[in-house]
Amino acid sequence: MSTDDESGTTEIPSYCGHCGLPAHTPDAHGVDSDHDDSNGGCSTRLAMEPPRYCSQCRRRMKVQVDPFGWSAACSRHGTVTQ
Amino acid sequence: MTRTVSTDQTTALTGIGAAPILDQARDRVLHRGLGLTQEQILQILELPDALLPAALELAHDVRLKYCGESVEVEGIISVKTGGCPEDCHFCSQSGLFESPVRAVWLDIPGLVQAAQETAATGATEFCIVAAVRGPDLKLMNQIKFAIERINRVVEINIACSLGMLTQRQVDQLAEWGVHRYNHNLETARSFFPEVVTTHDYDERLDTCRMVKDAGMELCCGALIGMGESNAQRAELAAQLAALDPHEVPLNFLNPRPGTPLAGQSIMSGRDALRAIAAFRLAMPRTVLRFGGGRELTLGDLGTREGLLGGINAVIVGNYLTTLGRPATADLDLLVELNMPIRELQKSL
User: How far apart are the first and last CA of chain B?
Assistant: First the structure.
């Protein structure tokens, strides 16, 4: 995965790319544990689909899936590709 | 790869006796080349787990006899994602739901690149898909130019899935060389109003019939696991068989966040395999393709069982908004199963 971060800095993810919730709070799926650990919910989903929310600001991203990759663009934080 | 299990062997294996429906299916479908009736399809869908392997074996034999060993490989791409005015309850691309999917368009260079990458895998089909009720002039123009550009640089059959068409649009797509058109029934007529309210079943059938009449191959598929009953799955298979499409993509619901079906349980792998066998036995000659959701419903083992149970086509790589298995995983599996990739045949 590569990033084209317009700010040129590397930030610690604040939000879940799958559901958009804060990364270190219980998730929306009723799992009473840290959101980004091994609860098997969003982390599993993110292995099967591209992120929909910017991990820095929670904006919904414009996502293009193609047969062998994807790109996800945040208007503020740039584009992530795989 | 050929394998056969006789009724006697099945009986010995299960210890519970073979269901009469399997003997009926062997005679009607394998020997005479006729699809099962709706009532017979339902009996396949309700077979006990112990008889599922025998049903898959039979479906595989039918596929080999009427379709051959080869597997058709296809890549798909979304040219216009999200923002759809329709309310298909399974779809994350409807603009009527609180889905995280945002509207986005892919340009023509992006389409050409995707077609080239798809062809490089050995695939013979490249399907361009748009999340729309039906194409407007802007989309039709983009499709026309995309077809021209793709045909200049890569040898691959181009298919489209652009929603409901007018007769004029059908004629234009055929004239531009669209090889196959996808328009799914999705579910049984009796269940359709539970899933879609912004258009009706007959509107879908109208487009399907126009496509066939224009000489394009019809790709018309199913999405199962939306809460329909086995009887409704059988109804759908019978309705598809009556339409006689060239291809039937068989999709399994992947519940999408924000859609009305977000909370629907993922269907069991065994039920998915029963559906594969049943659809093959309903349509012995169709291209039966693994569509979306197989990764979630069937996993790696189920993919193998499906290919040995009636499936003879796959979508390679990613889907429209979700990711598929790595292309190499499917292609390696085909090599292992000694199933050659179907070669390109320009039919139009």
Answer: 31
DSSP secondary structure code for residue B344 in this structure: P
Measured distance between the N- and C-terminal CA atoms of chain A, rounded to whole angstroms: 5
∠ CA(B196), CA(B205), CA(B125), 5° rounding? Answer: 95
ipTM of the prediction: 0.86
Instruction: Measure the CA–CA gap between B22 and B18, rounded to whole angstroms.
Output: 7
Homologous superfamily of B66-336 in CATH? Aldolase class I (3.20.20.70)
- Taking only the tens place, the pLDDT of each residue in B4-28 is 444 444 444 444 556 899 999 999 9
B76 contacts chain A (CB < 8 A):
yes
Distance from the Cα of B269 to chain A's closest Cα (Å) equals 18
Q: What angle do CA B307, B311, B316 make, to 5 degrees?
A: 80
Nearest-CB residue to A19 (from B257, B321, B327):
B257
Tens-place pLDDT, residues B251-308: 999 999 999 999 999 999 999 999 999 999 999 999 999 999 999 999 888 999 999 9
Q: Which CA distances in Å does A32 have to B30, B262, B290, B319?
A: 53, 20, 36, 32
Q: Give the model confidence (pLDDT) of A13-54 as tens digits.
A: 789 999 898 887 654 444 444 454 444 578 888 888 999 999
A48 touches chain B (CB under 8 A): yes
Residues in A touching B323 (Cβ below 8 Å) = 47-50, 65, 70
Least Cα separation, residue B324 to chain A (angstroms): 7
